[in-house]
Structures are given as structure tokens and as C-alpha cells.
Amino acid sequence: MPIQEIRLFGDPVLITKAVPVVDFDKELRNLVADLTETMLDAPGAGLAAPQIGVGLRVFTWHVDDVLGHLINPVLTLGEEIQEGEEGCLSFPELRYDTPRSLNAVARGFNMFGEPIVVEGTEFLARALQHENDHLDGILFIDRLSALDRKSAMKEIRESEWFNLEIENGRTPTIKDSPHGMFGRNI
Ligand code: ZN
Questions:
Q1: What is the distance in A from the centroid of ligand 1 to the CA of 14?
Q2: pLDDT tens, 78-133?
Q3: Ligand 1 centroid to 138 CA: how many Å?
Q4: Closest CA to 84 of 50, 32, 124, 122
Q5: Which domains are seen in the chain, by residue range?
Q6: Is 90 exposed, middle or buried (0-12, 13-18, 19+ CB in 10 A)?
Q7: Any catalytic annotation for residue 131?
Q8: Ion ligand 1, residues whose Cβ is below 5 A away
Q9: How far is the CA of 186 from the centre of ligand 1 (A)?
Q10: Which DSSP category does 45 fall into?
Q11: pLDDT, tens digit, for every residue of 34-64?
């Protein structure tokens, strides 16, 4: 069962800090495979393990036709900021201009435990930052201006998916402040 259910905003796993991977074993490789297949099926440009309910520091991306994954990443961000439209698979249909560093260097490991470095600009830099945030329980709405965040929260409360989650008893009360780019969400 490689394609997993994508957790939506309101699920506590999305605002929980993920823990580092310790064992680079078959289970981890299965997780990377599940993330990749779920991301491609959505389709999305990136997916982090907490989004499928797994609290480990792992994410995948699919940017410019290149598939990648990173374990236990550490990001170094450039100073220049880009504004651009961003979405998230955990917030269906929600898109807002979100400030991100134009350049990002991510250091981490592949699923075999080998160290890798990924240098991203523009969209890849945005995806790396968005996914890395997921590992810290930070969501893209947390990166918006106060005004946009307010408007995003209103849109979420009025959305069909969010109300369906509540109907299904899956969404706890949301505190207002829990702390795609190009047509695709991440
Ligand atoms: Zn996301």
C-alpha cells in the first residue's frame, strides 16, 4: 500500500516537530518510496513524512522533472527573498504568495545513509524550505503576513474539506495561532 492518505490541516501531526532518522534500514526506504508515490499521485511538487502521519525528518520533491529525497536535512538560506505563490497538499485549494529565500542549500543524507548536498534556487529553494518547515511543525500559513494569514484562516474555516474533516470527527479545535507553486502544491 504505497500511496498513503495525506493528512490535512487540523491533524496534530502537522504541527508536531519530527524526530531525526536513526536507522537507515528497509523501513526507511519504504517510507521514501511511499512519500514519492503519494507525492506523484497527488500530484505534488513535494511531500514531507508528517504529511502522511510519520514523525520522521524525511521529505521528497519533484521539481523540474527531477525526483529527490532528503533525510535529516539542515538548511542554509540565502539572504535574498522571493515572493511567489505557494500551496500545500495539506491545505487543498489554498494558495498564497509566500516569502522565501531565493537560494537554499540543504545538507542531509540519502536513504542509504550517504551524505548529500542539494543546492536550490527559485522553485526548488522554495520547495526545500516548505518541506523542511513541515519537519519542524511549521506550515506555510505561518509564513504569511498577519493580514494574509487571517484571510487564509477564514478560507480554511469555510472550505468544504475542512468542514468534512470536522464532520468526520478528525479535526480538533484550531487555535488561530498554532505557531505549488506553478499549479502544484507542496
Ligand atoms: Zn506542505
A1: 9
A2: 999 999 999 999 999 999 999 999 999 999 999 999 999 999 999 999 999 999 99
A3: 9
A4: 122
A5: 12-167 (3.90.45.10)
A6: buried
A7: yes
A8: 88, 186
A9: 4
A10: S
A11: 999 999 999 999 999 999 999 999 999 999 9
